[in-house]
Amino acid sequence: MRIDIITVLPELIKSPFEASILKRAIAKGLVEVHFHNLRDYSTNKHKNVDDYQFGGGAGMVMSIEPIDKCITKLKAERTYDEIIYMTPDGQTLNQQVANAMSMFENIIILCGHYKGVDQRVRDHFITREISIGDYVLSGGELGAAVLCDAIIRLIPGVLSNETSALTDSFQDNLLAPPIYTRPAEYKGWKVPDILLSGNFPEIEKWREEKAYEHTKNRRPDLLENE
Ligand code: ADE
């Protein structure tokens, strides 16, 4: 997969790709991430990428021209599955969305800033709008990092034990069951006996029951469409 990230603040989004699973995914060649500084596509001498709102109102708006130049250049080089805009009024990211997006070959992610982008960018270039939740961030970069992390860890070969993504919370619309490691007893607090029994069919059954119970308590909404 190739991900092209368009941003006015590349320094804000680079570090998540320089550690742990994302770093390894890049090193293994399973994903390529390219950062494009929108200011490099500005045509004015101050490298501005924003302007005042037509009709008045507080806050600057990201201009269409540098975004057009950047997206058009990228689209001339390859075909993109989606051109995504990070925005609080987009479709809320969830595990199903991440699963579907992990199948893509090439995507562009545009990070918004200030009041957002000129509506014509959304109307003519963007194919999908994603929000990471019902709150407003200072810009789309942190949201883009969250989206990339959620997608990249699902690409086959990224996690060393592929089944571990399959047992994550939200896969199958269930939250993950409780997990334990050594010691089997700490300050009198014991690990459930079943997990030490070696009876794997029973352990699997216990995990399924716990996952269901936990989901029913915390997120009954996830069970509504079952
Ligand atoms: N930009 C600002 N707020 C955002 C959010 N909640 N999700 C995605 N991008 C954003």
From TrEMBL:
**So what does this thing catalyse?**
guanosine(37) in tRNA + S-adenosyl-L-methionine = N(1)-methylguanosine(37) in tRNA + S-adenosyl-L-homocysteine + H(+)
Any keyword Cytoplasm? Answer: yes
**What residue ranges carry the coiled-coil annotation?**
none
> One biological process GO term for this chain?
tRNA N1-guanine methylation
Keywords associated with the record: Cytoplasm, Methyltransferase, S-adenosyl-L-methionine, Transferase, tRNA processing
GO MF, one example:
tRNA (guanine(37)-N1)-methyltransferase activity
Q: Which InterPro entries match?
A: Alpha/beta_knot_MTases, tRNA_m1G_MeTrfase_C_sf, tRNA_m1G_MeTrfase_TrmD, tRNA_m1G_MTases_N, tRNA_MeTrfase_TRMD/TRM10
Residues the entry annotates as binding S-adenosyl-L-methionine: 112, 132-137
E.C. number:
2.1.1.228
The subcellular location is:
Cytoplasm
Q: Which GO terms describe its cellular component?
A: cytosol
Under Gene3D superfamilies, the record lists: 3.40.1280.10, tRNA(m1g37)methyltransferase, domain 2 (1.10.1270.20)
Residues covered by the tRNA methyltransferase TRMD/TRM10-type domain: 1-224
Q: What functional role does this protein have?
A: Specifically methylates guanosine-37 in various tRNAs.
Q: Which HAMAP family match?
A: TrmD
Q: What is this protein called?
A: tRNA (guanine-N(1)-)-methyltransferase
What's the source species for this entry? Paenimyroides marinum
Recall the taxonomic lineage recorded for the source organism: Bacteria, Pseudomonadati, Bacteroidota, Flavobacteriia, Flavobacteriales
Which gene name belongs to this protein? Answer: trmD
